[in-house]
Structure formats: C-alpha cells, structure tokens
Amino acid sequence: MKGLLLIGGFGTRMRPFTLTTPKALLPVVNIPFIKYQFQLLKKYNVDEIILGVGYKGEEFKKIVDIGKKMGLKVYLSYESKPLGTAGGIRNAYKFLKGKEPFFVFNGDILADFNLEKILNFHKEKNAYVTIGLVKVDNPSAFGLVITDENGKITKFIEKPKSEEIISDTINAGVYVFQPEVLEEIPPDKNVSVEKETFPQILKEGKEMFGYVHYGYWLDVGTIDKFKKANFDVLDGKISLAYQKSERNIDVDSSSNVPGDISVDGKLVVGKNVMVKNGVKIKGKVIVGDDCFVGENCEIENSIIFRKTVIGNNCKIENSIIGSEVIIKDNCYIKNMSLADRSLIYDFTKSGE
Ligand code: GTP
Q1: What is the pLDDT of residues 166-183, one digit of tens each?
Q2: What angle do CA 76, 80, 84 make, to 5 degrees?
Q3: Are 325 and 342 in contact (CB under 8 A)?
Q4: Active-site annotation holds for 276
Q5: What pLDDT digit, counting tens, does each position of 60-104 carry?
Q6: Is the whole model's pTM more than 0.90, yes or no?
Q7: Are 275 and 269 in contact (CB under 8 A)?
C-alpha cells in the first residue's frame, strides 16, 4: 500500500535546529525522526512511501537508501515552492493515482497509530476520506473535528475560540484518501488540506469519517515537544525505532564511558563518544554520536546532537545542544537551544 509523508515545511518553530536540518531528520534518541515513521508504516505493510519534500529537499536523498534497507520503496516528490499540505498531496499525483486508497501523514507526528484498524474502518464506512482523530485536554491550538454518533464528520473548526469548543477530538494528522480526492485539489497551487480541501469536500456532501486513536500521540512542532518526544521514547512510551533499555545507562559499544560516573536518571550515549571521569548525569540525557564530554561535567535533562565537544567542569541543564558545537571549559548553559556549530567561550554563563 502507498503512504505519503508531508515533510516539506520550514519548521520555523523549531529553529535554530531546522535552519540546518529539516525537522524530519532531527534526532529522536539519536535516530532520525523519519525512521520512526518508516517503522510504523512497515509494520502495517505500507511499503511504498512517497516523501512530499520542499525545504531542504535534497537532504532526503540519503533517506531513500535507509528505506531500501528496511525493505521499503521510497520516492521523493519535490515542491519547488511550498504548496501547503493539500498542494503537497496533489503534487504527488503521479505516485498516488490509481484505484486504491492511500495514507497521508503529517510528517511531524509521533504516534503508534493502528493503520490496519484505520484502513478497515475506512473501508467499512465506505468513506471518501477518513481522518484520524485524537482527544486532547485543550483543543484551542488545533483543528477541532466534530462527528456524529456514527463517526461521520459534520464540522471543522480551525483553532476554536473557547465558546466554540464543543468537542475534544482534533485532527491527528493521519488520513486515508480515496484516489478521487486528488482531483479535488487544484495543481501547482498552495492549498491547505485542513482549511480548504476538507471543508470543501464536506460542502460537496461527500462522506468523511473520523477514527479516534487512543494510543500515544504527539505533534512534534516545537522545541518543547521535540524534547518531550525524545524523553518519551527514552521512557518506552512508544516503542518504535529506539529499543528501550532497562538499564539506566545505554552506551553504544564503540563509546568510552567510565564505569563509575554518576547517573541519577537515564543516560543514552551514541557511537564513538568519549566521556571523561567525574561526570554527573541527572534526569534524562541523550548524547549523540562522536561527542566528547569533559571531566566533572554535570548534565541534566538535556539532548546533545552529534560531533559536539563539551569542555571540563561544564554544567548543562534543560537544554538542547546542536551538532558540531564547541563549549569550552567552565560554562553554565541553562534552558538554551544552541544552534549547530555554536562556539561558546570559557566561563560563559547563559540562559539563567
Ligand atoms: P512551522 O513552520 O513551525 O509551523 O512548521 P512546519 O513547516 O512543519 O508546518 P506545520 O507544522 O504546519 O506542518 C505540518 C506538517 O506538514 C509538517 O510535517 C510539514 O513538514 C508539512 N508541511 C507543511 N507545509 C508543507 C508544504 O508546503 N509542503 C509539504 N510537502 N509539506 C508541508
């Protein structure tokens, strides 16, 4: 079966990291985010994957091979200008046209959707479109989707005001489309599936249904949510790509971490990492491949991307440190998002 991942956005809310790396390739416990989606799709035999790419689209070429190694066929559907979510779907026309329904995913959702159940529901209801829904405590920042008792969608309310919140089900960013839906979207135009295509289909009287997902679901759109995605995976709240270790230190065999470092929480260390003596870890800490952590550093609830060097006696709290960063000795970094290739001089104190 075919599935389209929409991953062409700029990811502005996740700057500075998305200035250098598209959101779908940022690391979640040292594994590119897109691999979590590949695993979910593979699990349900969605083995032909189309990537709707735009911003930094060339970066995804290497992903085709990663997919191949996983037994997936991966195709790139390039947008030379942002076409929006529906425009991105229409742009993949040549890959998706045919007689069979197909899946569409917002590329920044981490979830353990049961794709088999969603597809069966779509077929049973004879739906034109099925939209995966999730229940949230505060739907005000999302698109509210109202259904009747049979799951038939009756109304969409984008970013509802408090008096409009008459339900707690929002669009979860997974859809099943009948192929005819492709014809509803004008080509080469920037069109939003949530704001334009779905309301238009509803107006035409075609049947759309909502399937409520009760498992894990996270919209990884902001830095805080990105941190949460990493920590939730570490905790085993979703078991895709990263296999949760029961030990509180999970170090790749190629890395060098002294046996007596103090870990009051959970530490994951990637490949070819050197950690020196006297290091203290608190809470959840992820260290990417090819990093160096100097003597007597204290790191708490932080994520460190690849090839970063941290000098001696540094303290890092609640921060994300990008790739190829150099932090010299005796620095104190708190609540920061340090861009790739940042250089931090000795005795810097920031973010307090
Ligand atoms: P922000 O700039 O921070 O809002 O992030 P974003 O660019 O990712 O936008 P948003 O979170 O609204 O997008 C949801 C999903 O749709 C993400 O996976 C995006 O990559 C994807 N997306 C957004 N716009 C486009 C587009 O024009 N084309 C394609 N192919 N995908 C898009």
Answers
A1: 888 999 999 999 999 999
A2: 85
A3: yes
A4: no
A5: 998 999 999 999 999 999 999 999 999 999 999 999 999 999 999
A6: yes
A7: yes
Strand partners, 262: 280
Q: Which two tokens stand for residue 125?
A: 């209801």
Evaluate: CB of 12 within 6 angstroms of ligand 1: yes
- Nearest CA to 78 among 12, 7, 173, 11? 7
Catalytic-role residue among 68, 117, 159, 189: 159
- The domains found in the chain, sorted by start residue, are 2-234 (3.90.550.10), 249-350 (2.160.10.10)
Q: Give, using CA atoms, the residue closest to atom 12 of ligand 1.
A: 9
Sheet with 274-275, edge to edge strand ranges: 274-275, 292-293, 309-310, 326-327, 343-344
**Is any ligand 1 atom within 6 A of the Cβ of residue 194?**
no
242: confidence class by pLDDT, cuts 50, 70, 90: confident
Question: Span 188-209, mean pLDDT?
Answer: 95
Please name the residue whose Cα sits nearest to atom 18 of ligand 1. 107
Note whether 74 and 41 are within 8 A (CB).
Answer: no
Kindly tell me the sign of the dihedral angle through the C-alpha atoms of 60, 269, 220, 146: positive
Whose alpha carbon is nearest atom 5 of ligand 1?
11
